Structures are given as C-alpha cells and as structure tokens.
Amino acid sequence: QVQLVESGGGLVQAGASLSLRCAASGRTFSSRAVGWFRQGPGKEREFVAAVSWSGSGTLYADSVKDRFTISRDNAANTVSLQMNSLKPEDTAVYYCAADSTYRRAYGPPVRSTEYNYWGQGTQVTVSS
C-alpha cells in the first residue's frame, strides 16, 4: 500500500549538516503520519522525529530537538529530515516509516509499533 525509500545519508564531519529524504509511493501516504527512527551500532532502534499527516504537528526526541527539523511536502509525496550540528553519536542507520492509521486525528505517534510501513534505511556517519 505504501512504499518508502530513504536517501541523503553519507559521511560528514562533526558540526556539519545533512538532509535526509523519504520518497514515497502509494495513494495514502499523504494521509499518514511519518516518523524517522535510527539504529546505531550495538544500540536499539530509537525514535528521532515525526510529523502528522497534515504537516502541522511535529515531535522530536530530546537528543535532537534543537538540531533536527522534520517537514513534509504531500504534493510531492516526500518527507525530509534536516540535520544540523551533527555529532558522532548521531551515527546510525536512519529509517522512515508511515503510520498504520489513516488520517490520525491527533499528533503523530512515537512508538515504532504504531508504524507498519518502513523504508530500507540510509547510513549516516559522523566523524569527530
């Protein structure tokens, strides 16, 4: 029903910026909240940021709240994650995911179990 492909990852120095993109196919993408999750080496997958289906509501993990910005362009079927002031601890595989609930009437969820459409991930590596 929904297919997601992440892009924009790479190797950068600490303090640099990077923009990730999630390109979607599927008619219902624009009516689902989208979240970004990441998994670093030897770590559990963690929530990073999410945006409501309308684009008006956003949530961020405390560790990225002052540095990352999530946005979406429903006309283009894309979601972006602008990452500034990157730190080595941001190194991880980043995944985008679409909410299992169609046109959720409240803020985007933060639990991975609320998302059932996932991309393949893109690697972000930040060197010191």
Can you describe what's shown?
This protein has 128 residues and is mainly beta. It has strands at residues 3-7, 10-13, 18-25, 34-39, 46-51, 58-60, 68-73, 78-83, 92-99, 115-118, 122-127. The strands form two sheets. Strands 2, 4, 5, 6, 9, 10 and 11 form a seven-stranded mixed β-sheet that branches. Strand 5 and strand 6 (58-60) form a beta hairpin. The N and C termini lie far apart (40 Å).
- Contiguous low-pLDDT stretches (5 residues minimum) are none
Overall, the morphology is: globular
The number of helical runs is 0
Order of helices and strands: EEEEEEEEEEE
Question: Can you count the beta strands?
Answer: 11
User: Gap between N and C termini, in Å?
Assistant: 40 Å
Residue-averaged pLDDT: 96
If you compute it from the alpha carbons, what radius of gyration comes out, rounded to the nearest whole angstrom? 14 Å
Strand content: over 45%
Largest sheet: 7 strands, mixed
Portion of residues within helices? under 10%
Give the class from helix and strand content and strand pairing.
mainly beta
